[in-house]
Design brief:
The protein is mostly beta strands. Helices cover 4% and strands 40% of the residues. It contains 1 helix and 15 strands, in the order E-E-E-E-E-H-E-E-E-E-E-E-E-E-E-E.
Length: 223
């Protein structure tokens, strides 16, 4: 059996089945070969505890009726196996029809031939992630006067502290923007939740920026 997974540079395929039109399902390219024919195949999705939450299956259809027509159909029946699709799709739903909770899952595809031989793929990881990154940031308390600082090296309000907290993501990008919206200073925080920052009033070149009004922005895009 040959099984090709979607191309990804991560240890698992991440998708977001929330019907927003972006990465709503997993499309699994599939190739199953056998010397004779494939009698049945199935795709099983396991949760982190090893329980099956979704099964997608197809098996050979045979005439089973017990009446005279069923008997004739069985006598004339020719084994031909099942049609193997070029791809299988998991839309994030469980066998009960409910949305699978956010978390890590494992997918295994198995196939059985007409001789009863069964082959399965290795476990393949997939992550359901419907929640966007979240962050909350705040400057120093004390009203509008607390938002003014003077990075002139005199030891009084030489830096601007920023407290923040949020979800752990692969990459958070923080920026100071000037009045025109152009970034003048940037930080990156990788594989972590947002942590506190302090701006010393300098740009990325190490120069103190001109007096004026500036804005702070932190953003992330998850997988």
């Amino acid at each position: 059996m040959l099984f090709r997974s979607p191309a990804t540079s991560w240890d698992a395929y991440h998708f977001s089945p929330n019907n927003d039109g972006t990465l709503d399902d997993i499309v699994l390219p599939l190739t199953i070969t056998d010397q004779r024919y494939v009698k049945s195949f199935d795709l099983k999705v396991f949760d982190a505890a090893g329980a099956v939450v979704r099964t997608i299956a197809n098996k050979e259809s045979r005439p089973e009726n017990q009446d005279l027509k069923g008997l004739v159909d069985r006598l004339l029946y020719v084994k031909k196996g099942v049609d193997v699709p070029s791809e299988l799709v998991w839309n994030g739903l469980t066998d009960a029809g409910s949305a699978a909770p956010d978390g890590r899952y494992f997918i295994v595809v198995s196939a059985t031939d007409d001789n009863g031989n069964t082959s399965s793929t290795e476990r393949w990881a997939a992550v359901v992630d419907t929640l966007p990154p979240a962050v909350k940031a705040s400057g120093p308390a004390g009203g509008s006067d607390a938002l003014i600082f003077s990075p002139d090296g005199d030891g009084n309000k030489d830096s601007f502290p920023i407290a923040q907290e949020g979800s752990s993501e692969d990459l958070w990008k923080a920026e100071i923007l000037d009045a025109a919206g152009a970034p003048v200073r940037a930080w990156k925080q990788e594989k972590a939740a947002p942590s506190a920052l302090s701006w010393d009033g300098k740009n990325d070149s190490g120069q103190v920026v001109p007096d004026g009004v500036y804005a702070y922005r932190m953003s992330a895009t998850d997988r």
